[in-house]
Sequence to fold (460 residues):
Amino acid sequence: MKRKPFATVIFTLLLSAVVTAAEAVKLPPKEKFHLFLLVGQSNMAGRGTVTPEDQKPHPQVVMQNQAGEWIPAIDPIHYDKPGIAGVGPARSFANQLAGTEPGITIGLIPAACGGSPISTWKKGGFWEQTNSHPYDDALKRARLAMRDGTLKGILFHQGESDCTEAASKLYHDRLVALLKSLRFELDAPDVPIVIGQLSRFPGETWNEAKTRVDAAQQLVAKELPKVAFVSSEGLTSNPDKIHFDSASQREFGKRYAQAYRQLIAGEIPLCSLTGGKLSELTGAQVLRAANVEQKDDALLFNGVNSILTLKLPKTLKTFTLVADVVVSRLPDQEGALFARPGFHNMLSIGKSGGLRFTIFGADKKTLRVARSENVVVPGIRCRIAAVVEERSPEETRLTLYINGLEEGRATLRGAVYPYGDTLSFGAATPGGEHAFPLAFRLLNFRLFDRVLNGRETFAL
Fold:
């Protein structure tokens, strides 16, 4: 393997020192700090030549340095082999994702170890080239990072060191064990994982072992949930014919990002509101905002004549609405947290604090109600999720969750009343009146055009 010129090494080390000495970056709230663990060997760590363009930090992308501190992300992201590590796919990946959701910051957790076979990626495994324990160190770094943010994905590129007759035959089972173990140890059973394909450089001929490792990776991406496989077709190499060059690593990062977006497509809200700020409303249009006050991190509804009406991007027959709320006081009779046109589909809170989620049939007479077993306590923040699932044109199910736990369920058999594309908070609005007003603080809400279960709603 060729080493980088001495001048390049010195430049990289000096620049790392400057960045390390920089003031600590300002981090967003934990739920807005999206973390990605980087796992594998040298092509994940990166061996592409670093250029001035690779040293320009993105304001929404940071990386964990060797001391566990957050600093602006510039290449090289890794430090597995100082003076050798260079451009990898991670920074390009992060730059692609940054800005896709208002207020998020991407945090990269470097854990790849150059040359490491998958046999070292297990508890207690040691890799002499980097004088490290790849698996144990990755968990340690990830857990430290997760004090500040939320793990959103794992990027994986490994396998070159397993392209031998013996190792390749064990690769499938070892890869399954590794990915399952990472998810288990990090308490992230559904975290998306993206696997990058081994090199397919122009003129390169694969032996049987490399073909076997590639087949194992593609199979695992089909066998395990939320795992994607990214092609390396058309990417080119450094002169060593082992590592992807800088341009290919940047392209690879974009491919990782595209695959990741496809994995989480169903997890991106149709519309959302963050921190009670209407300025950060995404995916919906405000039709009416009357007597709603923005204060600190919430929208305040006074329980008399406050209402917020949104126009949704489409009419929904199946959806999940997740809202973080603090009820200011219980209503005298019943108050609407939200309602669709009229009050034919309404989530309300009764005078005792119990939740009622109602839906009407097309005849406007047939009514079904999902009721919560527990109550909402004034002054206590809680996450309420309401699910409408059209199981068929003649069957619609309602499900209620509080803090991720199922509270109630009901099923309407027959056609549903045809709803429009608006949604109101704070009151139901038949004829424009402030019916069923409710006093509460709305901190966040997310509306999905699919069914989420309780665990998924609580993990958002």
In short: Residues 271-459 form a domain with the Jelly Rolls fold (CATH 2.60.120.200). The CA atoms of residues 393 and 415 lie 6 Å apart. Residues 1-23 have pLDDT under 50 and may be disordered. The longest helix spans residues 165-185.
